[in-house]
Amino acid sequence: MRRKRRKKTNKDVFRALRVFGTVGFDLAGAMLLGFFLGRLTDRFLDSSPMFAAAGFLLGAAAGFSRLWRLGMEEVKRDDWH
């Protein structure tokens, strides 16, 4: 049985742009926010860059978690069979 090909519309293009834009901003933003919050904590406690590194790693984990959820939402929204 052959599947019917769906014609791409402008709506599909804008949806793809939204998803790809969100990927970049979510991941980079979470890592930068974690790094700078860790850096502020390091300055406040007068410590080594331990909190900056930990903040960066936590931000990366949060960013990838958000990307996973976004991907799962897109898979559920489409008819992936």
Can you tell me about this structure?
With 81 residues, the protein is mainly α. Helices cover 79% and strands 0% of the residues. The chain has helices at residues 10-45, 50-77. Helix 1 packs antiparallel against helix 2. The longest helix is centred in the middle third of the chain and has 36 residues, at 10-45. The chain is elongated and about 65 Å long.
Topology summary:
Elements: H1 10-45, H2 50-77
Mean pLDDT: 85
Radius of gyration (Å): 19 Å
Largest sheet, strands/sense/barrel: none
User: Which runs of at least 5 residues are low in confidence (pLDDT < 50)?
Assistant: none
* Anisotropy-based shape: elongated
**Strand tally:** 0
- Could you give the distance between the termini? 14 Å
Helical percentage: over 70%
Structural class: mainly alpha
What fraction strand? under 5%
Number of helices: 2
SSE ordering: HH
Describe this structure in a few short sentences.
The chain is an all-alpha fold. It is built from 2 helices and no strands. It has helices at residues 10-45, 50-77.
Which features characterize this protein?
81 residues, mainly alpha, 0% strand, elongated
